[in-house]
Design brief:
With about 220 residues, the protein is an alpha/beta fold. Helices cover about 30% and strands about 25% of the residues. It has a seven-stranded mixed sheet. The structure holds 2'-deoxyinosine 5'-triphosphate and magnesium ion.
Length: about 220
């Protein structure tokens, strides 16, 4: 068991510029009595190039650059959507699917366009609102916590399976959430509260695992 790196820190640095992630981490870590700061609070840290081949490699890159710049442990999240009908794309390219700096709405539009182009369709009945299931998909989240004092990493990964539908459901969450349907719940990811999403999501699962590795037992 690793020592708890977060002990004695009432603020956790999350190496992200994604406001949706910040909200989810803030909500989850608040239960441990910890506040979250993000790269929005440190504009002087230069942009981090995410050129790793895997979610885990990118998470390590972001955690290390941030931890080294600030001299305190930093937590990074690299995540994305892997769509079966697209052979796992957009994967590590999820954030820039529709181009560098693309808005979530543009990425969602591109996803529907690609799926429509190949005529993706699941041999499953349509949902009760008439929307069509297009492909199985998985959200993946790799977390890396880095300690600049020792150069060590603690890492964890989580996934959640779902289905991409041809229409959005709900307006919560961020990113691809509106197109991600959870057949096991009969609801869309963007229809869940932060609490509900955290309980089942790729990020929630990765965070639980990371906390276990740190020896922190929540609930
Ligand atoms: O729970 C999620 N619900 C919906 N979409 C999600 C989720 N988690 C990741 N995603 C999507 C958003 C973005 O298109 C990509 C992450 O890319 P990723 O590089 O990890 O994050 P980012 O560039 O938005 O912020 P940053 O790198 O500063 O942490 O996957
Ligand atoms: Mg990114």
């Amino acid at each position: 068991m690793t020592r708890n790196w977060l002990e004695g820190h009432d603020t956790v640095v999350v190496a992200t510029k994604n406001a949706g992630k910040v909200k989810e981490f803030a909500h989850a870590l608040q239960k441990l009595g910890k506040a979250v700061v993000s790269l929005h609070d440190y504009p002087s840290i230069p942009d981090i190039v995410e050129d790793g081949d895997t979610f885990a490699a990118n998470a390590r890159l972001k955690a290390k650059a941030t931890g080294d710049a600030l001299g305190v442990p930093a937590l990074a999240d690299d995540s994305g959507l892997c769509v079966d009908a697209l052979e796992g794309r957009p994967g590590v390219y999820s954030a820039r699917y529709a181009g560098e700096g693309a808005a979530d709405s543009a990425n969602n539009a591109k996803l529907l366009q690609e799926l429509s182009q190949i005529g993706a369709a699941l041999a499953e009945p349509e949902l009760s609102d008439g929307s069509k299931p297009l492909s199985r998909a998985q959200f993946v989240c790799a977390l890396a916590l880095y300690d600049p004092a020792t150069g060590e990493f603690i890492e964890a990964e989580g996934t959640v399976d779902g289905i991409i539908t041809d229409r959005p459901h709900g307006d919560g969450g961020f990113g691809y959430d509106p197109l991600f349907w959870l057949p096991q719940l009969g609801r869309g990811m963007a229809e869940l509260s932060k609490e509900e999403k955290g309980a089942i999501s790729h990020r929630g699962e990765a965070l639980k695992l990371l906390m276990t590795k740190l020896g922190i037992h929540n609930e």
